[in-house]
Design goal:
Blueprint: E1 2-3, H1 6-15, E2 17-21, H2 22-34, E3 39-44, E4 49-56, E5 75-85, E6 89-90
Parallel strand pairs: 1-3
Antiparallel strand pairs: 2-5, 3-4, 4-5, 4-6
C-alpha cells in the first residue's frame, strides 16, 4: 500500500487502522473474503523504503473515524490492521531478491 505521506503510516501504526482509496476498496474486500490472510506492504511515495507490513484484521467498512478526505485522494472505507513489522527497509537492500 502506498501513502502520499508518512503521517498516514504513523496514524495507521498507532491506531491499527488503514483507510483505502475508492479504486482499491473492492480489491481489498475481495481479497479478504477469498483468503485466510491478506498481508499488505506499506511505503511512502518517493521514500525509497518500505515502512513495514501488516495483516488485514477486518473487512473494509464505511467507518472513517480517523481519516478525512482533505486532499485530492478520494478515500473509500477503512479496516483494522495487525502490524507484523514496522521496521523501515530500504529498497536498495532487496534489489537482488528474486
Amino acid at each position: 500500500m502506498r501513502s502520499s505521506n508518512a503521517d498516514n503510516i504513523n496514524t495507521a501504526r498507532a491506531y491499527k487502522e488503514w483507510a483505502t482509496t475508492i479504486p482499491n476498496e473492492h480489491k481489498l474486500k475481495e481479497a479478504y473474503k477469498s483468503g485466510k490472510y491478506v498481508f499488505l506492504i506499506y511505503a511512502v511515495s518517493k521514500s525509497y523504503e518500505f515502512q513495514g507490513f501488516a495483516r488485514m484484521a477486518g473487512q473494509v467498512t464505511g467507518n472513517m473515524r480517523l481519516w478525512r478526505n482533505d486532499s485530492n485522494i478520494k478515500l473509500g472505507g477503512s479496516f483494522k490492521l495487525e502490524w507484523i513489522s514496522d521496521i523501515p527497509l530500504s529498497f536498495n537492500k532487496i534489489l537482488n531478491m528474486t
